[in-house]
């Protein structure tokens, strides 16, 4: 029997939810003594979802019942979640627990092959590095180490966001593998035209509510989406700015890049425009609207977010 507890990131609830999953085993003695009952050796296990009562959480069933024994005997998988006293119902403030339990969670459980999610990791690159550190006889090429390290640099915003001891340990491992930080720096260099485009975007930015920077780029460049994303990152270096949005146009589509230091959820804001991403970086694309219309829509959603917050 395997019992796993994880922090499930729900797009329906827009936050993390604790779940515990029990998966029966066919190797421990209890199972070997009942071989005639093992009908699901090579088939997906039936799944039982257990809902807790008021004031409890995902750990209640394993702590106060024999659910692990029953799962083993019946050869079923069991999923238990924390519902935060929301009564498994949809609420007006986007706490759509019924939709989460009835649709999103079962889809996640059914389609998951292997999930390795560490909420305290800085980046996917850090997780990949930790996996490599656990493998024997693995030798990275210098260019491979530099590629992985560049992912850490981007996701941590140059080691300023979600950076922990493990982040530096992973970086040290990559350095031992031949990482040349100077070469990584070359990967992020821009030509003069791109640099000036970013400067103009930052120069034309306006500050909203003393904490959100917004800029509209009317210039045309070949790599407009990259320039907008980099400019949004630059705007976060302004004192007092917690989030930034840059709007640009490419092929008659308005693209919006959102960045945050973590205090403002740019994903929640841009989801309202059909976009998505992460709490600290997100994007959206709008077709069939002018730049001014796109800006007004974004301002309206930011105002709504600020009032709710």
Structure description:
- By secondary structure, this protein is of the alpha+beta class.
- It has 3 domains: 110 residues, Rossmann fold; 64 residues, no CATH class; 117 residues, Diaminopimelate Epimerase, Chain A, domain 1.
- The protein is 40% helix and 19% strand.
- The chain contains 12 helices and 10 strands.
- It has a 6-stranded mixed beta sheet, sandwiched between helices. A 4-stranded mixed beta sheet has the order 1-2-4-3.
- It is globular, with a radius of gyration of 24 Å.
- The two termini are 43 Å apart.
- About 2% of the residues have low confidence.
Short synopsis of the structure:
This protein is α+β, with helices and mostly antiparallel strands and 309 residues long.
N- and C-termini, Cα separation: 43 Å
Please compute the radius of gyration using only Cα atoms: 24 Å
Tally of discrete structural domains: 3
Dominant shape: globular
The spatial strand order of the largest sheet comes to 5-6-7-8-10-9
